[in-house]
Structures are given as C-alpha cells and as structure tokens.
Amino acid sequence: MIKENRKTLIIVSIVTVLPILVGVFFWDRLPDLMATHFGFDNQANGFSSKPVAVFGIPLVCLVLLWAAALITSRDPRRKKVSRKVTTLIFWIVPAASLICAAVIYPYNLGINMDISFIMGIFMGALFAVIGNFLPKTRQNYTIGIKVPWTLNNEKNWNMTHRFGGYLWMAGGFMMILLTLAGLMKPGLMIAIFLIISLVPCIYSWWLHSARGY
Question: Same domain, yes or no, for 145 and 177?
C-alpha cells in the first residue's frame, strides 16, 4: 500500500507541513502565545506557545497521516480498497492542516474572520465527499462502516455503504446550507454527525436481522 502510493504520500506529506513555512515567514509578527482553538462565537478558547502552534500542529498532522497509511497498509483486505478511496483518505489530513493554518494564522495576525463559517463549510464539504466515496469502498478492515454485520456479509457491506453514502452526502449538504443561512450551531453539527454515523449501523443490523444479509 505504501509502495504503491509513494508519490501520493510524498505530496500529501509536503502539503501537510506547508503551514510551517507560513509560520516561519510570519514568525516575528505572531504573538508568543497563539490562539489555536475557537468556539462557534469566533472567540479563542484555547492557546498554545508559538513553537507548538507553528511546528507542533503540522507535525502532529504528519504523524496522523503516516499512522493512517501504516494502518491501511497492514489491512489483510487492503487490495480491495480502490486507489481513489485511498487517495481520499490520504488527503483528509493535509486538508485539515491547511484549514487550521488558514484559521490560526490570520486570527493571530489580527485579521477578523468568521471562523465558524469556514469550519461549517469545510466539515459539510468533507462529509459530502466522504459520502460520495462510501459506495465505492469494498469490504476491508480499515476504511468504511466497520460493524460485525458489514464485515461478515459482502451484500450487507455494499447495501450499507450505498445507503450510508447518500446519508453522509445529505448531511454534508445540509450542514453547508445551514452554515450559509447562518443557522449552524454546535448542537446541530453534533446531531448531524451522530445521525449519519449511527443510522447506517442500525440499517446494517436491520439488514442482518430482518433480511438475513
């Protein structure tokens, strides 16, 4: 898995740590104690030292990226995972790293921005993209809706991921619309995430218990 995706892993690794270069460029203008976590009211509620914010966050993201790559490479059913799905998984962490930088650096440089709007659009788009790829995910132990009923029955896996794909896309688009309308709240985001995560699992159990899949 790692050898086959060597070029992709090199590219996404570089993208993941690009925020370090931005931080070094603005080093003298950044405060020694930087805001790194924000509430839905766009107010900072978590802080880190400048070295941790500039170097630590991208490097932690890099570790997470390679941990995901290593875990995926050890999956006995990894050959069933399509290249497109693998590429999506590899790009999630770099995208998150860039979004964090796009929020943290401007805020700490004194630039006013609607952080909750950016995060709402990003999360909605991420859910929609994941939903688009779920039906393309074949049975494996690493990526997808991994419950006993999907792992034990290929038909259950395929039907659950098709249903889950529609649900994740719908949840993502709903989150984007609510954000654009200025109605997105933390409780709504959590509710949408719980629905799109739990309902496919219930559907998988129903397929197993009621239809024998």
Answer: yes
* Closest listed residue to residue 179, CA positions, set 110, 111, 115: 115
**Residue 80 to residue 140: CA distance in whole angstroms:** 7
Domain extent, residue 51, equals 1-113
pLDDT grade for 170, boundaries at 50, 70 and 90: very high
- Report residue 128 as tokens: 């929609």
Q: Which residues pair with 44 in a beta bridge?
A: 38
For residue 124, what are its two tokens? 């909605």
Could you please report the per-residue DSSP string of 46-96? Answer: EEEEHHIIIIIHHHHHHHHHHHHHHHHHT-TTGGGS-HHHHHHHHHHHHHH
Spell out the residues 6+ positions from residue 112 whose beta carbon is closer than 8 angstroms to its own. none
Q: What residue type is assigned to position 208 of the chain? A: H
Residues 6+ positions from 1 with CB-CB distance below 8 Å? 69, 72, 73, 75, 78, 86
Among 59, 85, 113, the domain boundary falls at 113
The span from the CA of 160 to the CA of 44, in Å, is: 39
Q: Report the pLDDT averaged over residues 62-87.
A: 80
Same domain? For 79 and 133 the reply is: no
Q: Please give the model's pTM, rounded to 2 decimal places.
A: 0.83
Length of the chain counted residue by residue:
213
- The residues, any chain, with a CB within 8 Å of residue 173's CB and separated by 6 or more, are 124, 128
